[in-house]
Design brief:
Largest sheet: 7 strands, mixed
Shape: globular
Radius of gyration: 17 Å
Bound molecules: adenosine-5'-triphosphate, magnesium ion
Strand content: 5-15%
Length: about 260
């Protein structure tokens, strides 16, 4: 089982969209996949057509009561793609965790059974735009951390801070396994893209060759609650995610 998280304390960089569409890509390739939503905004489930109400059981209950993650898993409309959903109650857990013993190991404990039973080939974890305990819990279980980054100088300036956090939580043992995904890249912004490539040259080997381009269909598919692969006008975006998925499979040894 390979565990990949999508994390960046900057908001709106495409973390959730990548989780949903990368998860769909792998599930359609018969890689049994689970997406865990660690963001109180709870965008993963509705993005895959699953309704989650305030009182529905979710990752908040798992972390708070130290339950097995399997107890909250829902099937999505995509065969082979399951979701451990979240909702706004997770923000209350976040506050509780701040003062609890071994606060950063709660998710790890809840995942013991799916590790042992090899229930999934791939686990993808969506992070909130923050650096708090929910992100610490996620970094603790990640084999790989993908950092989606928009092509803007503010987004790039924040990268260094996120990398410091990552090194701090994992004491350096993820050092070979964090990678930057350039996302929401506008094809028309040629000059900006060139400047950004130049600014990121010191991270060159860490950047996925496949960029995720800004496409209206990605946003529209999210609104419709389906992945771009199932969206009628999503061909270009799904080709983009397929190319990205292939690169992920090869860099992270996912079969
Ligand atoms: N490549 C893209 N092209 C067009 N729209 C996109 C793309 N990626 C994301 N979006 C849209 O931008 C918004 C933010 O994207 P998303 O929710 O994936 O980011 P996020 O990093 O998860 O945000 P947050 O930090 O709030 O969790 C959403 O409305 C999404 O549909
Ligand atoms: Mg998100």
């Amino acid at each position: 089982m390979v565990t990949v998280c999508l994390a960046n304390h900057k908001g709106g960089t495409g973390k959730t969209s990548i989780c949903i569409n990368m998860g769909t890509y792998f599930a359609k390739k018969k890689v049994k996949t689970l997406i865990i939503d660690m963001d109180p905004q709870g965008h993963v489930a509705p993005g895959l057509g699953i309704d989650v109400g305030y009182n529905d059981r979710c990752i908040a209950d798992v972390l708070l009561n130290q339950e097995e993650i399997a107890s909250i898993v829902a099937n999505s409309s995509v065969k082979g793609l399951d979701v451990a959903p979240s909702n706004i109650r997770l923000s209350l857990v976040n506050e509780t965790l701040y003062n609890s013993f071994k606060r950063e190991r709660r998710l790890m404990k809840s995942m013991e059974k799916i590790y042992r039973d090899k229930t999934y080939d791939l686990v993808i974890i969506d992070c909130p735009p923050s650096l708090g305990p929910l992100v610490e819990n996620t970094l603790m279980v990640a084999d790989y951390c993908f950092i989606p980054c928009e092509p803007s100088s503010r987004s790039i300036d924040g990268l260094a801070d996120f990398i410091i956090k990552l090194k701090d939580v994992r004491e350096g043992d993820l050092d070979d396994r964090w990678l930057i995904v350039l996302s929401r890249v506008k094809k028309s912004a040629r000059l900006t893209n060139e400047v950004i490539d130049e600014k990121l040259s010191s991270y060159k080997d860490r950047i996925f060759k496949t960029k995720i381009f800004e496409r209206e269909s990605i946003n529209q598919a999210q609104i419709a609650g389906i992945p771009v692969f199932d969206f009628p006008r999503g061909q270009l975006a799904s080709d983009n995610f397929s190319k990205f998925g292939k690169e992920v499979a090869s860099r992270c040894h996912i079969k």
